[in-house]
Design brief:
230 residues; mainly beta; 4-stranded antiparallel beta sheet; 4 helices; 15 strands; 13% helix
């Protein structure tokens, strides 16, 4: 019996919600498995849970549950041992009133049409305890976020898909990761920048301010200005 991985089933847990943990292990034969789950809070043991599970030959995924106190924010350690094994696997989890109480930041940057690995991609982030996920450069244009159709070319010429974005958002939310849309609120595409010169940001000498070799133009994001309203 070989333990492969141990991590929370979602990015964080709300007060009153059971904490669910995933144990991945590989068994040579089928049979019954005894697990010992030890929960710690700071230097104290909060709980010990012994349970039995049926496993099959090959890779198994076992879900373990523990009901934390409703107090939040709070962080817990979790150690798992199997069949009286000496070396546990460790992980940790949070009980939070909201993800931003203790944000841990990650990002996605591939929104190509046809990708079918959203669930696997988001599952890989859980062992790292990421709970806020930025969707980086997902938009059609900096000045026009949504594309005219589901598939589109972004300003860098990449072929992207709004359906891929939606699928990744859904996979994030299923694991309680916040999905954050990246947006450069201070910049517009070069064509839009030139067409709306009166909306632009200017330097002290009265010159418009390009960004990235005229890839974008800086806009005036002040409240009440036309660019901010746009």
């Amino acid at each position: 019996m070989q333990m492969l991985d141990f991590y929370p089933c979602q990015a964080w847990f709300s007060p009153g919600e059971p904490a669910r943990l995933t144990l991945s292990l590989e068994a040579e034969t089928g049979g019954m498995l005894e697990t010992k789950l030890t929960i710690t809070h700071l230097e104290h043991i909060a709980s010990t849970v012994v349970s039995r599970h049926e496993v099959r030959p090959g890779v198994n995924r076992i879900e373990l549950r523990w009901q934390p106190p409703a107090a939040a924010p709070a962080g817990y350690g979790a150690a798992i041992q199997v069949n009286d094994g000496k070396e546990p696997l460790w992980t940790a989890f949070d009980v939070l009133p909201g993800w931003s109480a203790f944000p841990r930041y990650g990002f996605l940057c591939d929104f190509a049409a046809g990708r079918d690995d959203a669930a696997a991609t988001l599952e890989q982030l859980l062992p790292y305890h990421i709970n806020g996920l930025q969707f980086y450069d997902w938009q059609y244009r900096h000045d026009c976020l949504l594309p005219p159709g589901d598939e589109y070319l972004d300003p860098l010429g990449r072929a992207l898909s709004l359906n891929a974005v939606r699928t990744l958002i859904e996979a994030a939310h299923e694991r309680k990761l916040a999905a954050l849309p990246y947006l450069a609120i201070y910049a517009a595409s070069a064509d839009f920048w030139r067409e709306h010169a009166e909306w632009a940001l200017y330097d002290i000498s009265g010159n418009p301010i390009p960004f990235g070799d005229n890839f974008l133009g800086l806009m005036d994001p002040s409240a009440g200005q036309p660019w901010a309203d746009h």
